[in-house]
Amino acid sequence: MNPTTDVKTYSGFRLATIFCMVILYAPLIVVTIYSFNASNSITVWKGLSFRWYVDVFIGPESTKFKQAAFNSFSIAFIAGTLATCIATAAATAIVRGGQYRLRTPSLGLITLPIMVPEIVLAVATLIFFNSIGFTRGYLTILIAHTAFCIPFAYLPIQARMQGIEDSFEHAAMDLYATRSQAFRRILLPLMLPGIISGFLLAFIVSLDDFIITNFVKGAGIETLPTAIFGSVKQGLKPNIMAISTMLLCLSIVMVTISYFISKWDKTK
Fold it and tell me: How many of the other CB atoms lie within 10 Å of CB of 38?
């Protein structure tokens, strides 16, 4: 096939694209619209209102959701930070470490959590914690999220580092900088867009995670996804749609920021 062929010229491409977009985004649009519904019912529209957004913050379930939000954001921040630090060290070793025997297996090991089904990771993590007698709670969620987020932080950091020529570091060392100084003063600032992008991706992955969290959390510990799931089991309420919409908007903003930061090229 001619590599310059435009796939949009193939018959049915436009229809298939529209179908996929509808399947993916129509439910999200419906949830967003009905989060502004003034009615107590999720199926009857009674006008535009922000009552359910207010209910999230001062309603009868507000205390539960506030605590769940604190858990979610604190875990996401700490796990994202730890995962980014580990991913930065791993990218430096793999990309700048030269050729060594375990280079390829190391890369495969880091990216493995992306390819393995999340339910498998959740079960394996649960078995691990049970086998060592680790009490499930806030800390187990944090450890599991940190491990799971490492590949998401690693990929943009690796991509950024691969785009930086090693001549910058060599020039610094030619001017009598040590390898550590060349890394801190030359390579690290150039890597900053990739590091920020990796942190944002790790943060949002941790914030949105449900499956692993639901397996490794202890009694009385809830994050926003698990708190939403618990409320939905008792019946779908409009305030759940409001929370879901806020999480969706936050995810879109964070991923958008991550995308544009990853395109930022300070070498130009």
Answer: 14
Instruction: Tally DSSP H helices, then E strands, for the chain.
Output: 12, 0
Can you give the pTM of this predicted structure? 0.82
* Number of domains forming the structure of the chain: 1
Q: How far is the CA of 217 from the CAs of 55, 202, 247, in angstroms?
A: 26, 19, 20
Task: List the beta bridge partners of residue 48.
Answer: 37
SS3 content of the chain, % helix, strand, coil (to 5): 75, 0, 25
> Is residue 18 assigned to a domain?
no
pLDDT tens digits for range 238-255: 888 888 888 888 888 888
Distance spanning both ends of the chain, measured CA to CA = 35
Determine the structural domain holding residue 212 and report its residue range: 56-262
Report how far residue 146's alpha carbon sits from residue 131's, in angstroms, rounded to the nearest whole number: 19
Domain for residue 113, yes or no?
Answer: yes
Task: Check which CATH number belongs to the domain holding 93 and give it.
Answer: 1.10.3720.10
Neighbours of 111 (CB within 10 A): 16
153 located within any domain: yes
∠ CA 178-181-185, nearest 5°, is 145
Q: Does residue 24 fall inside a structural domain?
A: no
Per the CB < 8 A criterion, the answer to whether 227 and 189 are in contact is no
Dig out the tokens for 28 from the structure: 């999200």
Per residue in 103-159, pLDDT (tens digit) is 777 777 788 888 888 899 899 999 999 898 888 889 999 999 999 999 999 988 888
